Amino acid sequence: MLGAIIGDIVGSRFEFDNTDETGFELFTEECDFTDDTVCTVAIADALLNGKSYRDSLVEWCRKYPNPMGAYGAGFKRWIFSSGQQPYNSYGNGSAMRVSPVGWLHGEREEVIRQAAATACVSHNHPEGVKGAVAVALAVFAGRNGVDKRELPDYLRKHVDGFDYELGVPVDVIRKTNTTFDPTCQGSVPQALNCFLESRDFEDCIRLAVSIGGDSDTIACMAGSVAEAFYGKDHIPLHIIDSAMRILPDDMKRIIEQFEKYK
């Protein structure tokens, strides 16, 4: 979860002003949390405090109605609608918010079930569900000692309909990623490939931002997986501190509760 939030904040200033460099400054005054962080905190709050996924998402998104970069048009309508109903979305909003599920459930099948449940309140298209399950299972695999090199086969085995192309070099993605693609099928494999090529947590975030596209969400998803595989202890403290300083107190309280629980 913390890795996801760091990725979101670092990538925030590049979402609509992409870079193809990796040597950028991680945190500047232009950085802020986006809808990715709001929704990730909402899912964590639901898991920790017995709320429904739908109710927690609505509560947190209405509390923060104008995050940096804004909500997607369809999801914003969902937030402020009456009796929110899923709208067959395959946007990457289902995958960027799901990382707490991979941490807080101890059985693989329950991770799959709960990841799908977090998606289906809004993003109930099969691609939206698959993206959420893939990210949650990648987090689950990392925290349970699956070798990084085995992750592609692990996901192919356990994610229904898994057809993401993994093992694509980041240099290739960077050169061909010429459109802004906020779908699960467009951005989840990119995030996973950035993680697979990375050397450590910070390198993963830098690679994820450098490929362009939906920078904050790609870095959010990649960061969530990187934390699980590399470990929180391998995230430099100055990076954690810089991200936490940006967050409001109510989000910090959920993160602190989450860290104690996991």
Q: How is the main sheet built?
A: none
Q: Rounded to an integer, what's the Rg over CA atoms?
A: 16 Å
Helix/strand-derived category reads mainly alpha
Residue ranges: pLDDT <50 for 5 or more in a row? none
Helix percentage range: 55-70%
Number of strands: 0
Please work out how many helical segments DSSP would assign: 15
Mean pLDDT: 97
Strand content: under 5%
Separation, N- and C-terminal Cα atoms: 10 Å
Globally, the shape reads: globular
The arrangement of helices and strands along the chain is HHHHHHHHHHHHHHH
Considering the chains and any ligands shown, give keywords for the structure.
262 residues; mainly alpha; 15 helices; 62% helix; globular
What does this structure look like?
Helix content is 62%, strand content 0%. With 262 residues, the protein is mostly helical. The protein starts with a helix and ends with a helix.
